[in-house]
Amino acid sequence: xxxxxxxxxxxxxxxxxxxxxxxxxxxxxxxxxxxxxxxxxxxxxxxxxxxxxxxxxxxxxxxxxxxxxxxxxxxxxxxxxxxxxxxxxxxxxxxxxxxxxxxxxxxxxxxxxxxxxxxxxxxxxxxxxxxxxxxxxxxxxxxxxxxxxxxxxxxxxxxxxxxxxxxxxxxxxxxxxxxxxxx
Length: 183
Known about the structure:
Structural class: alpha+beta
Number of domains: 2
Helix content: 10-25%
CATH architecture of the largest domain: Sandwich
Oligomer: single chain
Order of helices and strands: HEEEEEEEE
CATH class of the largest domain: Mainly Beta
Strand order of the largest sheet: 2-1-3-6
Number of helices: 1
């Protein structure tokens, strides 16, 4: 049924006009809530649980008080006899710095996550450290959390970082440092 607006009278015209206004208002509200929903989804992506995004390790040269420039977990370094400064080592090394990158830190969560690092060789745990990420909570960017590991140099090391809130594990990352010694 085609209606000519000029042929409508009084109450019919007002009823049609109200119907058009209501439909337009409902459409605008739907559009508004759609935009709000998209914004909330985007905000939810930014407030996701933290996760481990990188695990790197660097030799510590005790005589120099410096760290290697190259990540020894990259597979690009020869880790042969590093305790006496051989292989790709730039000096004697019996310790390493492990950097665990966590992205993004938690905002607004009442319980701060903790980050643990365990280092094993030959199925024996040599290092087991755990810290809270509370000092890093105010940062909006990924953070690199440092751990020092001692008595390294001749055994393959299995390095594992775990991110937890309470007993719930949010994520983990493991890498191997292929140290070897010999003649």
